[in-house]
Design a protein that fits this description.
alpha+beta, Aminopeptidase
Length: about 250
């Protein structure tokens, strides 16, 4: 296993200083932080049945599993911090581990040549409700760039992501545990497969809904505009009907 040394990346705006760094002993991720920002509680243990919807690691095994990934493979996460407040993370694991532990979409991970050099991005979280001042500041980009840099320098050949949305709906960006396709394409990820998730246009229209967890008038208007465009057939079927599998090659195996 090759070693990796990287200085944390600091992003400053207004009176805020955000640090993006690889997971270290200051906090081994022990629970999903999908509803960040929040302050991690040292020694906190989830109940066994509480688990991330993508990693599917039993809650009381979360910290030990993340520590195992880090100690065995060099690391498994990038975390963004504002002081002691966790803003978000990207968690990535070897493909064989994702398959063995039956993480989300593991059925799409048949054994293939190069698996021992392939990482799978399993979970991404970043400031859903209550952390809007941190959005559109380049923090998500910095986390993705650090993950890719780590993977390249430590000998991984590919990074794959499964079950990525098109980004059509606001919730794809604001509430999902995985940023949409267009985010990843900025870093050179390419579509390698797609799976239909909405059988009909009516299903997609119903998904838009009227929920507004951020009480944002702009978001409510955006959802209404999408709904009208769907009803008028102005949005391509690929954008509302499918999720996507993505891959980025780092070097030839």
């Amino acid at each position: 296993m090759k070693t990796y040394s990287s200085e944390p990346k600091v992003i400053k705006f207004d009176d805020t200083s955000v640090t993006v760094k690889m997971m270290d002993d200051s906090w081994i991720i022990d629970q999903c932080i999908g509803h960040s920002p929040f302050v991690p509680k040292q020694g906190y243990v989830w109940k066994h049945e509480d688990r991330c919807t993508r990693l599917l690691i039993p809650g009381d095994q979360y910290e030990d599993t993340m520590r195992f990934f880090r100690d065995t493979y060099g690391n498994a996460a990038v975390i963004a911090w504002d002081g002691n407040v966790a803003l978000g993370h990207i968690i990535f694991v070897p493909k064989a581990e994702a398959r063995k532990r039956k993480m989300l979409f593991h059925e799409r991970l048949p054994a293939s040549a190069g698996d021992d050099k392939t990482l799978v991005v399993e979970a991404v979280a970043f400031c859903s409700i209550g952390g809007q001042k941190y959005r559109r500041r380049g923090i998500g980009r910095a986390m993705a760039e650090m993950m890719i840099d780590w993977a390249s320098q430590t000998g991984w050949a590919k990074i794959q992501i499964f079950g990525v949305t098109s980004g059509l709906f606001p919730g794809d960006w604001m509430d999902s545990c995985m940023p949409p396709k267009s985010f990843w394409q900025k870093f050179g990820f390419q579509v390698i497969g797609q799976t239909r998730v909405h059988k009909s246009l009516r299903d997609a229209i119903d998904i838009v809904g009227e929920d507004n967890p951020r009480h944002s008038e702009a978001e409510r208007r955006q959802k209404q505009e999408i709904k009208v465009q769907l009803q008028q057939g102005l949005i391509p079927e690929e954008e509302w009907a499918y999720d996507f599998d993505l891959e980025k090659s780092l070097f030839k195996i």
